[in-house]
Amino acid sequence: MEKNISKLILLIIPILFTSCFEIREEVNMKADGSGEVMVVFDLSKSKGKLKQYMKMEKVENYRVPSEPEIETYLLTIKNTIRGVSGINYTETKSDWSNFIFNVTARFDNIDALNKAILRIADQLKNMDIPPIMEANFKYEKNRFNRLFDYPPKPQEFAQLPSMQRFMLESSNAISIYRFEKKVRDVSHEKAMVSPSGKAVMLKVSLADLVTGKGTLANSISFEN
Predict the structure, then answer these.
(1) Strands 183-186, 137-140: parallel, antiparallel or unpaired by DSSP?
(2) What tens digit of pLDDT does each residue of 148-186 get?
(3) Angle 46-159-167 from CA coordinates, rounded to 5°
(4) How far is it, in rounded angstroms, from Cα 77 to Cα 52?
(5) Distance (Å, rounded) from C-alpha 123 to C-alpha 220?
(6) Does position 8 have pLDDT exceeding 80, yes or no?
(7) Which member of 22, 170, 185, 207 lies 3.0 to 4.6 Å from 42 by CB, making a disulfide possible if both were Cys?
(8) Over the chain, what is the mean pLDDT?
(9) Between the CA of residue 76 and those of 11, 26, 84, 133, what are the distances in Å?
(10) Cβ atoms of 17 and 164 closer than 8 Å
């Protein structure tokens, strides 16, 4: 899902390249396959800098987007998701005091979630961003899969200025999945299961995702 708020990321790219940030993906799955997804874009660790940047027209030759521009795109995301069959609720929130933005949607089944992601990705087809053609999630009776089949770009990462590489190395993508069933096993060696046994968390640096050294792909099986 993080991949599919890329346009929002592009809007605030000068901020990203001068600040640490976190993209968090949370999915609450019910046993019947319905659930809720929330994507959180958290720049709160750098909110002091960001308040200064928002008053400027450009940072490092990038135009700084206005608050209304970002709010407009968040509304576009909300309306796009709302139009997908099987999505029964959508909401966006902006916390400009702490620079935290989130998008929430409730889905009737995993297919509806995947369609919503593809629908957003379709908006990016004219922005030189590779289209997303495959499903991001799978859910069966005793297994939940997070798929992450995005091509790594180590050469592009190596060509970035050292400060931008540092910011990506210091920023993270986090996935949190909650279930009604107890987790039996996870495939990702860095994934952590909660004490309750019903939640899984995984943190990977964005630099590792870009270079292919890390992945969010994870297969989670449940107890019978």
Answers:
(1) unpaired
(2) 877 777 888 888 778 778 888 888 999 999 999 999 999
(3) 15
(4) 27
(5) 31
(6) no
(7) 22
(8) 84
(9) 14, 21, 13, 21
(10) yes
Sign of CA dihedral 6, 8, 14, 16: negative
Q: Which residues of 67-102 are buried (b: 16+ CB within 10 A; e: fewer)?
A: eeebeebbeebeebbeebebbeebebeeeeeebbbb
Measured between alpha carbons, how far is 38 from 29 in angstroms, rounded to an integer? 12
Across the strands, what pairs with 107?
35, 87
Contact 92, 101 (CB under 8 A): yes
Tokens of 191: 């994934």
Strand partners, 87: 107
So what's the pLDDT on residue 201?
A: 98
Q: In the structure encoding, which two tokens stand for residue 9, read together? A: 């990321």
Residues 164, 166, 168, 171, Cα dihedral to 10°: -130
Task: Tell me if residue 223 falls in helix, strand or coil.
Answer: coil
pLDDT of 4: 38
- Cα–Cα dist 134/117, whole Å: 10
Find where tokens 């909110």 sit: 47
Q: Where is pLDDT greater, at 64 or 41?
A: 41
